Amino acid sequence: SQQGEEDPQALSIQEGENATMNCSYKTSINNLQWYRQNSGRGLVHLILIRSNEREKHSGRLRVTLDTSKKSSSLLITASRAADTASYFCATDAWGTYKYIFGTGTRLKVLA
Amino acid sequence: SQTIHQWPATLVQPVGSPLSLECTVEGTSNPNLYWYRQAAGRGLQLLFYSVGIGQISSEVPQNLSASRPQDRQFILSSKKLLLSDSGFYLCAWSVIQGGYTFGSGTRLTVV
After folding, report:
1. pLDDT score of A2
2. Distance between CA atoms of A42 and B6, rounded to whole angstroms?
3. Stretch B93-100: mean pLDDT, rounded?
4. Which residue of chain A has the CA closest to B31?
5. Strand partners, A84
């Protein structure tokens, strides 16, 4: 069964605006990760946030984690056309070696 | 530095033909290795993962199998391809509770 579910499924914004994507999951986790996938390419790791962390930053990316609500958000500030991609969250089931991916959010940044 | 190689990039195979996709990792020892499949416009489905030589865990009953003959080699196989096996296949490696590094993917079309 799907562990992570992203919301919204698709998002279209103007360049310079902020983009927020959300991820909900079902079971206890060790950590949660966000990935980006450009069309037809492999996935690129963006950020890993551990279950005891609440917020993490990397450049224009900000990730929050609320374990009580089993949810995470990815904020991209001052978006650029190059940010156009699909974004996935991935969670590991506690005590396992595997990550389960959500269905992704397709972000389109208009120049 | 660690690198992951996955080939071929694209493959067109007739129904009923065999399949062998290979993934190799360099620059790390005893990685966890994974095979994922992504249907068009969808999220990633975990197919197999391996925590060591000869150790394979299957996530989804299907027409595929995996093998790990060497520490840094992971092979995805099928004896007879089905139309439903078409998709984008991604190999990845990770260390325990770390992020994934993905290969560039193989787009398989079964005709």
Report:
1. 46
2. 10
3. 77
4. A97
5. none
Nearest by CB to residue B49, choosing from A35, A97, A104, is: A97
**A-B contacts (CB, under 8 Å):** 57
CB proximity B95 to A under 8 Å: no
What's the DSSP call for residue A60? T
Tens of pLDDT, residue by residue, chain A (111 residues): 445 678 899 999 999 999 999 999 988 888 899 999 998 888 999 999 999 999 999 999 999 999 999 999 999 999 999 999 999 999 987 667 788 888 899 999 999
Q: Does A98 touch chain B (CB under 8 A)?
A: yes
* Contact with chain B for residue A93, Cβ under 8 A: no
Angle at CA of residue A16, ends A10 and A22, nearest 5°: 35
Query: Would an 8 Å CB–CB cutoff place B101 in contact with chain A?
Result: yes
Phi, psi of A21 (to 5 degrees): -125, 145
- Which residues of chain A lie closer than 8 angstroms to B42, CB-CB? 103-104
Q: Quick one: pLDDT band at residue B23, thresholds 50, 70, 90?
A: very high
Beta-carbon count within 10 A of B11 CB: 17
